[in-house]
Design brief:
Elements: E1 3-10, H1 16-31, E2 36-43, E3 50-57, H2 60-73, H3 75-80, E4 88-93
Antiparallel strand pairs: 1-3, 1-4, 2-3
Length: 97
């Protein structure tokens, strides 16, 4: 069963566009990653520096492998430098309702 991953982050003031510009190139790798079914990045209408990623992965373990690769590559460090605080990552199971 797949897992829904919700990643929420808050950019430093005025840096939301810098993050989406960075992601525009980088997410092609994510979308091509084995076991990544979908990923969208959504900006809060009231606060464009608040971004929510909605991701569907085959498993939490596959997402964690992907995240480890991004960390080793240095992308996480680069992304964190643009944030006002730590991101929130939550994992959800589809209840079939």
């Amino acid at each position: 069963m797949s897992v829904l991953v919700i990643l929420e982050l808050n950019a430093n003031p005025g840096k939301g566009k810098d993050i989406t510009d960075f992601l525009r190139d980088e997410l092609k790798h994510t979308r091509g990653w084995d076991n990544c079914n979908t990923i969208t990045v959504n900006a809060n209408q009231e606060d464009p520096d608040n971004l929510v990623f909605v991701e569907d992965w085959d498993s939490k373990e596959q997402y964690e492998k992907y995240l480890a690769w991004r960390t080793e590559k240095g992308d996480i460090e680069q992304l964190v430098s643009l944030l006002s605080g730590p991101p929130s990552i939550r994992y959800f199971d589809n209840q079939g309702v």
